[in-house]
Fold:
Amino acid sequence: MARDGAFRGLWIACFGTRRCFRSITPRCPTPYASRAEQRFVLTPECLFVTMTLTNRGTCSMPFGFGLHPWFVRKDVVSLAFWAERFWLEGPDGVATKPITLPTKLDFAVGRRLPATWRNNGYGGWDDEAEIRFPR
Structure:
């Protein structure tokens, strides 16, 4: 949610120890008149993150929107999610084209986190991911 290079218009509210809400409405002049919101709910089983982006402008929004989490890379941490395809990354860091999901990049059954930087997109997924941090 760090759009437009600054946190101008950032608002955060926490409700107890298990719920938090934050929103950004840019106050500086920007061609992207919008409001972004995130809601976090922590349960003993998992963390739920809900994201909403509202266009407050008069034209279509020409940019992407996604959740870009960062997780500590330890040998015991694994990630599992189902997807149909993988997007290659171009030299400018933007997705170029989708390809059939290669076996080594398929996380359907769960895999350890990659040891190196990964900046790719997955398509055709079911909106659920599981990250395991065994004790």
